[in-house]
Hints:
The structure is a single chain. By secondary structure, this protein is an alpha/beta fold. The protein has one domain: Rossmann fold (3-Layer(aba) Sandwich). The chain has four helices and seven strands, in the order E-H-E-E-E-H-E-H-E-H-E. The protein has a five-stranded parallel beta sheet, with helices on both faces. Helix 3 packs across helix 4. Adenosine monophosphate binds next to helix 1, strand 2, helix 3, strand 6 and helix 4.
Amino acid sequence: MYRHLLYATDFSPESQSAQARAVDVAQKYDAQLSIIHVIDYLPVSQLDGGLSVVPDLEQKLNENARDDITACAAEIPLKLSHKHVCTGSPRREITDYALAINADLIVLGSHGRHGLGLLLGSTANGVLHLAQCDVLAVRVRD
Ligand code: AMP
């Protein structure tokens, strides 16, 4: 019996089957559903030999991600408990956030933007290794 699901999306078409499954499982268990997107690209500039983030681009990426997560949430026929956007390593942020909100199931696609080259995508694989709760990697077909 699951009480709180965390659906991780990269907004790729491949995430759609994971989204449908997350909704289905949440409805079946009458569980809470939350959603996370991790911005995994940070434009950096080299200043005085050090690296720093380009501030305008960072803000733009954040705005786009917030718009995308709002659009994604609008497609989900359930009230979401949390809509979370953050920056960093997707596998680390997803598993840390699952702990923070006490999620007992992470739902994600077996593959996403990074393509079908591997047996299991790198994010799916990393989340499976780091998660302290169950993980449902929804099969993405080619
Ligand atoms: P990948 O392993 O990177 O091909 O992606 C597999 C799945 O992990 C995707 O279908 C998404 O469900 C999830 N995912 C990948 N990247 C992110 C991200 N940046 N933020 C949230 N979820 C992600």
